[in-house]
RNA sequence: GGAGGUGUCGCCUAGUCCGGUCUAUGGCGCCCGCCUGCUAAGCGGGUUUGGGGCUACAACCCCAUCGAGGGUUCAAAUCCCUCCACCUCCGCCA
């Protein structure tokens, strides 16, 4: 939710941000009108309520005939108060809905436009030239089969399309990546967390996943519970309804959880392998800090993501995601995309968003500052999404005989193995 | 899953049976001031959160807020219903 006061004071800034996202500014006018309506209804209710309280207070000491008179007046007043209250509740709800429909105000720096209007900020490393090396790279599905690491056939048999089993070195790789990621996070002051992957509607709603994104979310039948698509959801809701002490900021958490996604709009896309799946595990960084500090923290999250990819010796580029592709909550977003040899292109491996105070408002997370409380900023960033990272590692570090060289940083977590060898 | 109990403004707590004097008691902590070689103690005051009005987003006035949401009533912390969380016991279980 955007700042209602800022909307009232400077609606043109919000209109401009909507334009950068390629969205209509109608929601702005709807929200402003709803705000007017809301404040009028509040004034009406409060005036009647104050009068009712005044009269009510007189009743106990009143004489018999005074009492009868008072009772008659308060009785009709009570009905008025009730309807005024109902009107206020309705107006308040309309206002809230109108406000909730407005996405976070995109950063001035975020490129205008949609999905394809990103700006490449930098390119790190060079994609391997397999032609020069004299062999055709195998894709991760084949490598996964040769190494006994990924079993997509049985995944489909047991759970359906877009499911898989990680076996042997595949499972070992996930464990190793998790440990490497957690060690890096811990060294940088993150608290390691294993959060619940099932959450209530409030958590989903608060993080902005029940709007247009709702199609992609699994709901538990008859339970009022959702499977999270990222641990951003439980970690944002972790401090919901709390007033935090800013002297302890930034609060940094590194959460490991499964992620579940319906991938509703992606039929036919990435049908092979484990690039796009209904479930994967992920280590996610999540930070609570002040609005002022959030911009610098966003850069730090990006730096940590790059550090992790560097350790895995991957070639990647960093893009500044365009306003129209930010999603509901983000004010700015950077994606790290790794080179996938058999696809001949860069694919998103990690993503970091500054949600400023947008989620904090929805989830009522404030800090106690001089001069009162105010919403804090939340940020998130992928440290390691297992499946895609495994794809990138296998394809990038494969050798002509189908074996895979293990990046040095990962070796201590893989029992010292330097090479993953094909199984018989 | 079954039975019972509990939920009060940071923490603890009075109040709930018998609705109005609750603009919610007291203690601890914290903040400001006084006192004081210093510290401690003592004394006085303050200390939920959100919103509206008015405005310098000050002061002030008002409304809401006793786990959440409904209901009864002129009036609800107090009575009724639903939900949530926690505790105890039983059952089941990794």
UniProtKB/TrEMBL annotation:
Sorted UniProt keywords: Aminoacyl-tRNA synthetase, ATP-binding, Cytoplasm, Ligase, Nucleotide-binding, Protein biosynthesis
Catalytic activity: tRNA(Sec) + L-serine + ATP = L-seryl-tRNA(Sec) + AMP + diphosphate + H(+); tRNA(Ser) + L-serine + ATP = L-seryl-tRNA(Ser) + AMP + diphosphate + H(+)
Entry annotated with the keyword Magnesium: no
PROSITE patterns: AA_TRNA_LIGASE_II
Coiled-coil annotated spans: none
Residues that hold ATP according to the record: 261-263, 277-280, 348-351
Positions bound to L-serine: 230-232, 261, 284, 380, 382
Pathway involvement of the protein, from the record: Aminoacyl-tRNA biosynthesis; selenocysteinyl-tRNA(Sec) biosynthesis; L-seryl-tRNA(Sec) from L-serine and tRNA(Sec): step 1/1
Function: Catalyzes the attachment of serine to tRNA(Ser). Is also able to aminoacylate tRNA(Sec) with serine, to form the misacylated tRNA L-seryl-tRNA(Sec), which will be further converted into selenocysteinyl-tRNA(Sec).
PANTHER family named in the record: SERYL-TRNA SYNTHETASE (PTHR11778)
Protein name per UniProt: Serine--tRNA ligase
Taxon lineage: Bacteria, Bacillati, Actinomycetota, Actinomycetes, Propionibacteriales
Gene: serS
């Amino acid at each position: 939710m955007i700042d209602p006061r800022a909307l009232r004071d400077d609606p043109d800034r919000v209109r401009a941000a909507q334009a950068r996202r390629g969205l209509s500014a109608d929601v702005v006018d709807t929200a402003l009108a709803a705000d007017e309506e809301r404040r009028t209804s509040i004034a009406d209710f409060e005036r009647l309520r104050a009068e009712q309280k005044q009269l009510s207070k007189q009743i106990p000491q009143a004489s018999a005939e005074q009492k009868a008179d008072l009772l008659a007046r308060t009785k009709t007043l009570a009905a008025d108060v009730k309807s005024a209250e109902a009107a206020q509740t309705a107006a308040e709800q309309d206002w809230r809905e109108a406000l909730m429909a407005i996405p976070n105000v995109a950063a001035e720096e975020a490129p205008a436009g949609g999905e394809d209007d990103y700006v490449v900020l930098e390119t790190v490393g060079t994609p391997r030239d397999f032609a020069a090396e004299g062999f055709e790279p195998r894709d991760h599905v084949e490598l996964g089969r040769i190494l006994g690491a990924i079993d997509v056939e049985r995944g489909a048999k047991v759970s359906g399309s877009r499911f898989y089993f990680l076996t042997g070195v595949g499972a070992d790789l996930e464990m190793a990546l998790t440990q490497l990621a957690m060690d890096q996070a811990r060294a940088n002051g993150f608290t390691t967390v294993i959060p619940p992957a099932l959450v209530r509607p409030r958590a989903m709603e608060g993080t902005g996943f029940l709007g247009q994104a709702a199609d992609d979310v699994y709901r538990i039948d008859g339970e009022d519970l959702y499977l999270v698509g990222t641990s951003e959801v439980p970690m944002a809701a972790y401090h919901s309804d709390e007033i935090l002490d800013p002297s302890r900021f930034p609060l940094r958490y590194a959460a490991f959880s499964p992620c579940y996604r319906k991938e509703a709009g992606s039929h036919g896309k990435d049908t092979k392998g484990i690039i796009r799946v209904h479930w994967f595990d992920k280590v996610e960084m999540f930070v609570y800090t002040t609005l002022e500090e959030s911009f610098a923290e966003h850069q730090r999250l990006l730096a940590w993501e790059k550090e992790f990819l560097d350790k895995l010796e991957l070639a990647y580029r960093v893009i500044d995601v365009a306003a129209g592709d930010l999603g509901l909550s983000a004010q700015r977003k950077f994606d790290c995309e790794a080179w996938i040899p058999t696809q001949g292109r860069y694919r998103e491996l990690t993503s970091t968003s500054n949600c400023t105070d947008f989620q904090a408002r929805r989830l009522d997370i404030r800090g106690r500052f001089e001069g009162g409380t105010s919403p804090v900023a939340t940020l998130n960033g992928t440290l390691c999404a297992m499946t895609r990272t495994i794809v990138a590692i296998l394809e990038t570090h494969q050798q002509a005989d189908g074996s895979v060289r293990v990046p040095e940083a990962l070796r201590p977590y893989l029992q010292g193995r330097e090479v993953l060898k094909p199984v018989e």
